[in-house]
Known about the structure:
The chain is an alpha+beta fold and 636 residues long. It is 37% helix and 24% strand. The strands form four sheets. Strands 3, 4, 5, 6, 7, 8, 11, 12, 13, 14 and 15 form an eleven-stranded antiparallel beta sheet that branches. Strands 17-16-26-25-24-18-23-22-19-21-20 form an eleven-stranded mixed beta sheet. The chain is elongated. The mean pLDDT is 83.
Amino acid sequence: xxxxxxxxxxxxLAYRPQYYGFRISTILMLMISSSLLLILIKIFNxxxxxxxxxxxxxxxxxxxxxxxxxxxxxxxxxPLDSVIIRSEGLTMIKVQNSTAVLAKMKTDYxxxxxxxxxxxxxxxxxxxxxxxxxxxxxxxxxEEKRSEDPVIKGKVxxxxxxxxxxxxxxxxxxxxxxxxxxxxxxKVHLYFNIEDSDIDNIHRIFHRSVLSPRKNYxxxxxxxxxxxxxxxxxxxxxxxxxxxxxxxxxxxxxFSMKQMNRERLLRIASSRIADINFELKQRKNRNExxxxxxxxxxxxxxxxNEYRKDEAQILLCGLDFMVIHNTPYGLTHxxxxxxxxxxxxxxxxxxxxxxxxxxxFRFEDFRRENIAYPMDRISISSFFPAYFSSEELSGIFLGMxxxxxxxxxxxxxxxxxxxxxxxxxxGSGKSHFAGLLIKRxxxxxxxxxxxxxxxSEYHCQDYxxxxxxxxxxxxxxxxxxxREKIESARVIIVKYNLIKFEIDDNAGLxxxxxxxxxxxxxxxxxxxxxxxxxxMLRNDQTLKIIENTVRHSRHFETAVVIITQSIExxxxxxxxxxxxxxxxxxxxxxxxxxIEKYIPEEEDMTRLAGGKNRKFSECFxxxxxxxxxxxxxxxx
Length: 636
């Protein structure tokens, strides 16, 4: 793709032609008003001035909206009824005599362009089914048992549900079309078995109490405000989901896409092209900025060209946000966060709450949108709410995802390989990170921990549970005798002389054998942390023992954590690299060539934060073929 193809379309329907700096609609309104005034004076003489104020109220937009709000306060609208139907293994929802099939959508999104492209392909396949699709991403707090965790508290996660429907409301045809949809893509999973908890979540879209229109929100048991996307000037990637997640906004996201009459939209695109051409000439003559007009012109031309194709992939879409809070002050705060997030993403939205309850009914009705926005495949892929973080809260807390602001947990004993590799230069924060892991592992009794500590960086006073510090000689003697201390301790810290190991190969062999013996002797989950592993890996015999330990660690419920200054040390043993799917790369200012195999060159490894005097450190966490940037606090 070139740069033009990678940008979303501008909303050509939002463009309003102007004539010498004034909107044509404004000029026409002035002409009509003046003519009408003259006619009224001619017919009614002085009494015409009694008729003029009501006319002004009807014609002036702000006054008209005020009248609408007043009428809606007197005439209370009833909430929409939604009925759930289960049939033939599908869950359907009926809203205002229209039926849609429900599906829950989960994606393995990791904030990278490659994954975005794979999810985009799946969305394109959905477009080809001919179904109309409305997606609601509904915010929720973490599961109750983790909601008070300081790391998670206040974070908002999103569940995305698809409403699949057709314009004819033919249920039989709808079911047949839905069954042809693939349940999985490379990074996407669709679930048609909707659970009761999901139904409860979906019902949160629909208001149950009477809403009273205010100036910029609708008040009720829960105050609501509706925003609709007017226009966007942004690349297709990254999406707006990241900006919303970073702000922890409590807002329901609605994205709808439906088939429309091609001839009608073609006429609209053609008329916009003619209007823009005329306005461009006027602005160029006045030496005014034409950047916006040029971008809208390109979008209109692309729409026009696409509609002439046999298999045009242009749909009429809408993107709405419903901000929710129980107090007006809290709602205002959430609205400001949404506005900031959308501006960061290059999007412009309008508060539709001035239209009163009409805006909320359009939001709840999956067939309708508040502001129409014609989009092509790339634009739809960018605006589809499929790029939120998944809620994975089991395991050990690693740090915060710098892309989304969400905590990352790792239940490494549930993965195909349990082993870690941690690399980084001296002072980059890798040993501090290992210390935090030990603290969290021992605090949650996730597993036993054996730490090989040649630089005396780890101490029992920092960890909870039974912990002992031993010299290497004491540790080996305990292994060969009673083993009571080893079996009773949750954390064992083995101290040894690093200089001795550099000059005595046999010392490294004894330590490597003791790791294997501990792994096979102690029952249950075990995590073995080898600090300054490069010293042991440079000896061929020791390397062979460590390789065998890593290769067979899974069979003994053991995770081996290799900590070293360079990834090149790991490459001395290919088995270690192959059997360690979790890799953490801290700052490395000197040797970055080996890292480029795992982390793209554009990610600057030399600028990662870290060190004893820093409040936080940074690293790249690589799992299989995807990576993310971790922010690690100095303490819990």
